[in-house]
Every structure is written in structure tokens, then in C-alpha cells.
Design a protein that fits this description.
The chain contains 16 helices and no strands. It is mainly α and 298 residues long. It has one domain. The longest helix has 26 residues. It is globular, with a radius of gyration of 19 Å.
Length: 298
């Protein structure tokens, strides 16, 4: 489908990501996912063995270097603890099948009878249309997910389409970070300083104190941070520029279906999103900065 002539506000592009993300992310926190992971042989006393396996499996038996590159903000030492050992425990094909079973069970538990609602089927069709319109050149995680077959049930099509779109956006976000000369740890330090979340939330990416402090020093030398780690005006402007480019690079799928239908999708899916949030499984704060508003959106 060719792109519409409707003008997309950057705020709508960001709204679509923020609205849809909880339905994708829920699968990484649900007991149904951990049950599937444990059955494959992964340790489930922490979330990371299953997370790295299930998110990276679309890439095949990826190396630690490939996962570090495509996930970007995780400490390379952290990635190396879980990858490539993940593929010694289970084949990526088996992991992908388990992930889809987990998504099925997770959404059925969270949405209840809503999983069969016509609104879910309509949302699935719209989201799939947007996902299939996305260009995957230079976007390895999005391309890997685009190669996977579609499920038959609407709620799973919806989950797959959301996953493809969020990885498409994520690949574009990495391109924006690289363009602004921010490495993985600098991306987190600058995002925290700009108000996305307290620094302790970003500790989940397991950069060492020395690595975090060195990144702060580099950003201070660039004029992005003050000596105490607070974002300067240049730092806030820089982060807005990163997010503006991210939104620009994520706009294509939504341009394809148009602003009116994209906004309709957001309204359609909101009750299911509230169901997902209502499970209490999702963290109150994350490293993604969901809910932040940037000057380029106004």
C-alpha cells in the first residue's frame, strides 16, 4: 500500500509506540512466558536468560557481538553471560515457538473474553498493514522479525505486528544514537539525565560504575552534562534531536495507513492496553522513557 497524503504529527508517531508497547512488553514479564522458558531449560530466577533468548531468537543462533550490537544499550559483559549460551540450551526455532505460545497464553490471561472481540481483529488487521509497509533496510531486528510467518489468530497477529513495529522503531533509534555519536552507555546516561528515569532504573543494563562514570565524563566534555551529571541545555537539545530523528525514522508504517486510521487504531486498542497494564506485571518505570514529551512534538 502506498503512503497516504496525510501529514503525521511527530506526537502521533510517538503515541503509537507508547500505546502499543505494553502489549508487546507484557510477554517478557508474564508467568506464562517464564513457564515456557523453564520448559525449554532456561533459568527463571531472573528475567534475563529468557529475555535474551526470546528477543534474539529471530536472528537465529546469534553471537554475543551481534546481540550487543542490535540491543545496543546492554553491557557487552552482560550479553556475553547469556549469549551464545542461550542456543546451547534451546534452538532458536524452538524458542520462537515457545515465545508465540507464551504470547497466546499471556494475552488470553490479560484480556479475557476481549481477546475474541471484533476490535482486536480490526486492530490486528490495521497493525499488520502498518508493519508490512515498513522498510527493513538497515534494520536487522525488524528484518529478522519480518521473515517470521504470521500466526492465524487475530490476537497473535496483533502481537507479532506490534513486535515488528517496535523493533523497526528500535533499529531506527539505534541509528539516531549512532548519528549523534552516543554509544550504548552514553545513550543511557544522557537519557537518564534528561529525565527518562532515575539512574538506578538503568542499572538493569549492568554497566559497571566505572563505565557509567566514564560515560558521564565524556558527555560532560561534550557539554551535554554538568559536573554533577545534570543535563545541560545542550544535553536536553541533543536528546530531543535523538528522539526527533527516532520519530522521523519510525513514521513510515504510520504514514502508510494514514494519521486518521492510526489514531483510530490507538483508540481501538486502548482497552486491551489497559488490560495489560492492569495485570500489574509491567514495571512502573523503564529505560524506554515512555510518557516523556519532547520539544519537537509540540
Amino acid at each position: 500500500m502506498s503512503a497516504t497524503n496525510e501529514t503525521l504529527n511527530p506526537g502521533l508517531v510517538r503515541r503509537m509506540w507508547q500505546t502499543l508497547e505494553p502489549l508487546h512488553a507484557l510477554n517478557y514479564y508474564s508467568p506464562e512466558m517464564f513457564k515456557e522458558a523453564e520448559a525449554l531449560g532456561y533459568a527463571v530466577d531472573e528475567r534475563w536468560p529468557a529475555y535474551f533468548a526470546m528477543r534474539a531468537a529471530a536472528l537465529g543462533a546469534a553471537s554475543a557481538e551481534l546481540v550487543t550490537s542490535t540491543f545496543y544499550s546492554f553491557s557487552p559483559a552482560m550479553v556475553a553471560r547469556y549469549v551464545p549460551r542461550a542456543w546451547e540450551i534451546a534452538d532458536p526455532t524452538a524458542v520462537l515457538a515457545a515465545r508465540l505460545r507464551a504470547a497466546d497464553a499471556t494475552l488470553r490471561a490479560a484480556l479475557g473474553e476481549r481477546v475474541h472481540a471484533p476490535e482486536i481483529a480490526e486492530a490486528a488487521a490495521l497493525t499488520r498493514e502498518a508493519a508490512e509497509a515498513a522498510d527493513h533496510v538497515g534494520r536487522p531486528l525488524a528484518a529478522a522479525h519480518a521473515a517470521l510467518p504470521w500466526a492465524s489468530e487475530p490476537h497473535l497477529v496483533l502481537w507479532q505486528a506490534i513486535t515488528r513495529l517496535r523493533e523497526h522503531r528500535g533499529d531506527g533509534h539505534i541509528a539516531a544514537l549512532v548519528t549523534h555519536r552516543l554509544d550504548g552507555v552514553e545513550a543511557l546516561v544522557s537519557h537518564s539525565a534528561a529525565g527518562a528515569a532515575p539512574a538506578e532504573i538503568f542499572a538493569s543494563r549492568q554497566w559497571s560504575t566505572d563505565e557509567w562514570d566514564a560515560a558521564r565524563e565524556r558527555l560532560a566534555a561534550r557539554g551535554w552534562l554538568t559536573a554533577d551529571g545534570t543535563a545541560t541545555e545542550a544535553g536536553r537539545t541533543g536528546r530531543d534531536s535523538v528522539e526527533a530523528l527516532t520519530d522521523e525514522l519510525a513514521a513510515q508504517p504510520w504514514q502508510a495507513i494514514g494519521a486518521t486510521r492510526a489514531a483510530h487504531l490507538a483508540d481501538l486498542i486502548l482497552p486491551a492496553v489497559m488490560d495489560a497494564i492492569g495485570t500489574g506485571l509491567l514495571p512502573m518505570q523503564s529505560t524506554l522513557g515512555i510518557g516523556m514529551t519532547y520539544p519537537h512534538q509540540t
